[in-house]
Amino acid sequence: MQFSVLTIFPEIFDSFLSHGIIRRAIEGNIITVNPLDIRDFAEGKHRITDDRPYGGGAGMVMKPEPLAGAIAEARKLMPGGRTILLSPQGRPFKQSVAAEFSLLEGLIFICGRYEGVDERIYKYIDDEISIGDYVLTGGEPAAMIIIDAVTRLLPGALGGEASAEKDSFTDDLLEHAHYTRPPEFEGESVPDVLLSGNHGIIEDWRLGSSLVRTLIKRPDLLEKRILSSREKQVLKQWCEYIERFISG
Ligand code: SAM
Fold first, then answer.
1. Cβ(30)–Cβ(157) below 8 Å
2. What is the value of pTM for the model shown?
């Protein structure tokens, strides 16, 4: 999958692209990431990409001409890509959106700065995405977040060491609790079931852990869920366990 990032600070991506799973995905030709400097499409010696807002007021606005030039270049390099404006006013980014994007040929991100982009750029935009209800100084962290979340869903990106299938939000549930060595830490033991070697019981425990964690931490995710008979059964077992625990 191809990613293009239109930014006035392409060097911000250097470290992000040279570590961990993202670096491996680039080396393995699973993804390409091409940061394009919007300044390269600005006119004049000073390559200015922003100007004062018409109507007055604080802050600067990103000029349309350099952005349009950068978008045209990105589209030439990636004709099948979806052009995404990163903006706090956009469609909320979620795991389901990451899954939707992971099926596309490529994404072209426009990273705003200052007060954002000139309104006339919207005619070039296919999608407007927000990573949350807060305001960043620029779209670059948002582009990294989306590239990261999408890449780990691409076949082969996680290698043999991990799987995205059971990650939080995949099935509108948070993922179950995890334990690793040592078997006891500061007086707290790993649940016996995880040491049992019985995969059926372990899977039930994990499903229960997942449901209970979601209920406690993100009840909104469970509100519309119709529990399967297995989920009900597993939750009942957890209720019995909690009751036994309470009554000592
Ligand atoms: N004045 C704009 C507003 O209130 O809607 C905010 C501009 S923000 C300071 C500068 C740039 O950061 C935006 O153009 C956008 O590219 C990026 N940005 C800020 N918050 C974001 C968010 N929650 N999600 C995605 N991008 C964001």
1. yes
2. 0.94
